[in-house]
Amino acid sequence: MTSTDTTQQVFRVALRRLGIERLVLSIHQASFPASHDDLGYGTPYSERSGEMIEWLAGLGFTGVSLGPAGITSRNNPSPYDATGLSRNPLHIALEPLCQAGLLDQRLLDAAVANRPVAERVAYEYAWVTQRRLLAEVAATRCDDPAVIERLRQLRQAAPWLDREARFEAVVAAVGHDDWQHWPSSPPEQAQAARDFLLWQLLVREQHAVFCRRVRRLGVRVYADLPVGTSHREQFLFRELFLAGYAMGAPPSRTNPEGQPWGYSVLDPAQLEPGGDAWQYAAMRLDAVLQDHDGLRIDHPHGWICPWVYRTDDPDPLQAVQQGARLYESPDLPDHPALAAFARVRPDQIDRAQPRHADHWVSAVEPAQVARYAQPFDLIIERLLAHGRQRDDLLVEVLSTCPRPLAEVLARHRLGRYRVTQKADLSNPLDVYRSDLARPEDWIMVGTHDTPPLRAVLERWRPTGESARRAEYLAARLAHDPEERAALEQRFASDQAAMTTAMFADLFCGPARNVLVFWADLFGLSEAYNRPGVVDGANWSLRVPADFERAYRDACNRHEAPDLARAAAWALHARGLDQDAQGRALVAALDKQHGGG
């Protein structure tokens, strides 16, 4: 047994003893480490990324949660605006194509030599150059009989591909994908359609190889289902959407002004079981569940109680602030069109609450809950049909959880997110507190939309928040008054100890599922994404190419969390180090990182 095997074994034994069933790393595809053959955009399917998953398994991780896998447009790198059915050709690893004789190595070498950067995402260069190189592959392989047969099988399994291929053919012919400015009878470029189909085949086949490799390591692969619809799908499936309204985020604790996302809203009349929008939703679910082990549901409110706003208002921000919930607006004078979709009566509305408040709906009856739950009934049905487990749903409920959504989660025994860095410790009922978590919840210190923990701790230092956190964490990790006082003092004065304590807090339960965003694992200080802000730095951070050394150095600088020590502290806090097995486990964990 190697030292890596030993580390994994000890850590996973510790997690099982703590009742932690899943330890999952969250990372979007573009952020995977740079390799010698990429164009400035990461992919899980490169050899270096495979080595990273092996390293993560050695640390004790049991899963990796990828970002949305869809196609992003040339001028918008956000994976949450990507297509929900087709896969992104940027995710194709190019070196394996060279090794298989599908791509001239000299072409790839020249493209890599010209890439602007490798350490960050070079989005536009990668977008253009990747497609140019993949077109070279398609030009020589589309007529291969073996490829033709594999494409036939793929098109049979995914009938929507032909519709999307035609879209690509028009884009190539007119030079842009803004269908609102296409001619009434747009031309098509047939080769672009063939290219697209081959790319879809390649990315799926590389994904299958990746999954087989990581599953042998005991690592599960989770997909991400965005709440939004891409610009492309708003055109291709335009008959399924409600006219006059768009979906956004209401004012909230995280974004007090709200966010006008501009996403189309599925027509409620067609989102009944068996309806056309229902079939579309099932198709999207099947498209990701067929080759992933679980699913993150982005903004589940959009399935249960979407916040909508009028599209005829020239000021989208004003419109979203004056919006309403699609199914909870039985008699609003400024949204008379929504009355037809109401699932609650006027007497069930608490008018003293803002429209976006969790308790705007004061009560719901069983029959109403059953109707609200229909989309999640579909999600669970498709999940189980693909042989997955209910517990492998990550439901991204943050600070806002309207009553209908809470009832649906309870109906299916699903948890929510507990983002501990956002906890308001002055409020004993705050939803982000770790001590209020339930076993089915997913707990984490941060997400891709929050500042990394290192930056948060530095921001807390000159304020009273460090002292409040130190007191809270000490109470979570020690029961003896003297030990608690010593820990409180240590956490308040030692940022490295506070970092590890924040992770130990995750392992203390009662939540059984722990999610770690990769930037927090590596102790970065730069934010990955600033939500609601157009910023060229968004979505551009990548895992260092030499990730083993980078993590070790960050640990030595006391910037990254010491996971082994965090687990040891959690075992002690739970009183699980009192027997011989527990003492031996803590000793083994301490030995891995030099003791506590």
Give an overview in words.
- The chain is an alpha/beta fold and 596 residues long.
- Helices cover 43% and strands 9% of the residues.
- The protein is built from 23 helices and 12 strands.
- The protein has helices at 3-18, 47-59, 95-99, 105-113, 123-141, 145-157, 160-174, 190-215, 231-236, 276-289, 301-304, 316-321, 366-372, 374-385, 403-411, 453-460, 465-477, 481-493, 495-507, 518-521, 547-556, 563-573, 580-592; strands at residues 22-26, 63-65, 220-225, 241-249, 259-266, 294-297, 307-310, 324-325, 393-395, 417-419, 442-444, 513-517.
- The strands form 2 sheets. Strands 9-6-3-2-1-12-11-10 form an 8-stranded parallel beta sheet. A 4-stranded antiparallel beta sheet has the order 5-4-7-8.
- Helix 17 (465-477) crosses helix 19.
- The longest helix has 26 residues, at 190-215.
- The radius of gyration is 25 Å and the shape is globular.
- The two termini are 25 Å apart.
- 49% of the residues are buried.
- The mean pLDDT is 94.
